[in-house]
Amino acid sequence: MPPKQTAIPKYIDPLTDFGFKRLFGSEPNKDLLIDLLNSVFNGRKQIVNLEYNKNEHPAEIKEEGSAIFDLTCTGADGERFIIEVQRGRQANFKKRAVYYTSLLAAGQAPKGSRAAWAYDLPEIYFIALLEDFSIESNIDGKYIRDIGLVNRDTGKIFYEGLGYIFLELINFTKTEPALFIKALKAF
Known about the structure:
Layout: H1 17-24, H2 30-41, E1 47-58, E2 66-75, E3 80-86, H3 93-106, H4 114-117, E4 124-130, E5 144-150, E6 157-168, H5 176-186
Parallel strand pairs: 3-4, 4-6
Antiparallel strand pairs: 1-2, 2-3, 5-6
């Protein structure tokens, strides 16, 4: 009897570190991720370049660990983007997102005179791909959550330079044939 062969998967899972790096983290495929991110921003921002790197920001205390930003994007106006790929549920995920963006913002401050710098921060966005959970407590069918700093009384944007976008794949229910038909119509 011949040895049993295991089936080779047809697709790469983009929500694994390997899959994300393979699909979006290499120079030949960089345009795929730029297109995806630009569609998420829906014209509000225009990404012109991205770098896959390990920007490690060590904690002050070794036991606290460090934050690693998998992807740094640059927009047309110099704004910065960090990408977090989150496959499963994480404790304190909202706090973690705020912590990561705080590290990136604090890292922009030059050594020395901050008065001359005048807190000229580039824009920072945290984009997370969430596979099996929603950032909200209920699953309501929305698969893109665009979070910003707003005045609670008026609903007006308080500061445009910091934002969080959560792509909740658990709420994305379009089928492969429906996406294929939509892609054909786009041509």
